[in-house]
């Protein structure tokens, strides 16, 4: 299973990173027999497909713009229902387009869940807002509980995402 937080260093657009980093810091990491990877990616574009390839299940977390209050969380279980403009795309080729391409190539995991966190300020190098930070911590706990319930033998993290020497390079892990 892959859990992928997507973002950029632009304020609330760090929402997906915040969730991935909260999961990476949890006690969940200390459990043996891990079969789950958790990574935070910076605007991966089509590079997202590489992280989905071979996964039986994946959870993606990204920022979204839907007109709701910042910090509102939405869940999408069917990527075909995903509107291209809903996710905030500072990511070049956006997540919705990358998922459509992965589907056309037959590379989508059997189970795919996408969480979007409504964002506000996306000023470059700004910290995420309190609303987004709170939503990220809450969502991390929700994801951890759901993974443990739905996939009890995979309720551990094999390897947290590693930091590259250039942490904000496009399509790189953070």
Topology at a glance:
Layout: E1 2-7, H1 15-25, E2 36-42, H2 48-52, E3 57-64, E4 73-76, H3 95-104, E5 111-118, H4 130-150, E6 157-160, E7 172-173
Parallel strand pairs: 1-2, 1-3, 2-6, 3-5
Antiparallel strand pairs: 2-7, 4-5
Q: How far is it from the N-terminal to the C-terminal residue, by CA?
A: 19 Å
Bin the helical content: 25-40%
Counting DSSP E segments of at least 2 residues, the number of strands comes to 7
Could you list the spans in which at least 5 consecutive residues all have pLDDT below 50?
Answer: 154-172
| N-to-C series of helices and strands | EHEHEEHEHEE
Beta-strand residue percentage: 15-25%
Number of alpha- plus pi-helical segments: 4
C-alpha-based Rg, rounded = 15 Å
Largest sheet: 7 strands, mixed
Indicate the mean pLDDT.
Answer: 80
Q: What is the multimeric organization of the chains shown? A: single chain
**Structural class estimated from helices and strands:** alpha/beta
Form type: globular
What would the keywords be for this entry?
174 residues, alpha/beta, seven-stranded mixed beta sheet, 7 strands, disordered C terminus
Give your account of this protein's structure:
Helix 1 crosses helix 4. The protein has four helices and seven strands. Mean pLDDT is 80; it is low at 154-172. Strand 1 (2-7), helix 1 (15-25) and strand 2 form a beta-alpha-beta unit. With 174 residues, it is of the alpha/beta class. The two termini are 19 Å apart. It has helices spanning 15-25, 48-52, 95-104, 130-150, and strands spanning 2-7, 36-42, 57-64, 73-76, 111-118, 157-160, 172-173. 27% of the residues lie in helices and 22% in strands. Strands 1, 2, 3, 4, 5, 6 and 7 form a seven-stranded mixed beta sheet that branches.
